Amino acid sequence: MTVEEATLRFAPPQLTARRLTDFKLTDAATAYRQLDGAAHCELRQGWQDELHAYFRPARVRTAWTKTMLIVAAELEDADIFNPATQLNEPGFTMGDTFEMFLRPADQEAYYEFHVSPHNQQFQLRIPSSTNFRVTRSHDALEYWKIRQPVFESRAAVDAAAQTWWVAAMIPFSLVAERSPVKAGSRWLFSFSRYDYTSGFPKPVLSSSSPHPRVDFHRQTEWGTLLFEE
After folding, report:
1. Secondary structure (DSSP) of 30-68
2. Which of 29, 43, 98, 132 is 20 to 30 A away from residue 61, measured at CA?
3. pLDDT below 70 — which residues of the chain?
4. How many angstroms separate the CA atoms of 52 and 67, rounded?
5. Separation between Cα atoms, residue 227 and residue 171, nearest integer Å
6. How far separated are the first and last CA of the chain, in Å rounded?
């Protein structure tokens, strides 16, 4: 065990996704409420002794169908914005962003999906964690981008309630490259967030993973997602 692992402020999450016979993605807030009672995880700041003064909570629920992983998030936010409008614009450098990292346990390649409050998407397929460490650069990100939309998402904003929602349906045929998903399958996952506030130069970051330092790609602290019948 490394010094960093010994000082984790909370354990990597263990999340169970229940199987649904049917799921319709209408709007993000409704999708989140459709998963009432489902296991959930919260986003926190494992790298800080105390939460940032502008930290706002977020909660994520999951489920699955025969062909899709469902991810639904509710994010409290005092200032909801992101000017990005085009697929694969780096919205996380501009405004509020919810991120999903997913890797089936039996493969090295993993996927990174972003959704903004206005449903702008960003998509990457990264060959392996080793590849990411060695070639991490803007040029590599361009190479890893998935150029056509590959997952369905919705976003909803309630500025008066200072809350926004994301719901996404991610096809197993894309992410699970080596074996089909079935009851008992396990994936590694991490959900994270960039929470911007107007007038402040840096966003407040948070993650479902207990990273001892800010690095969302550190799979050592990612959680385990179990697909349950």
Report:
1. HHHHHTTTS-EEE-B-TT-SS--TT---EEEEEEE-SSE
2. 132
3. 1-7, 137-138
4. 39
5. 14
6. 34
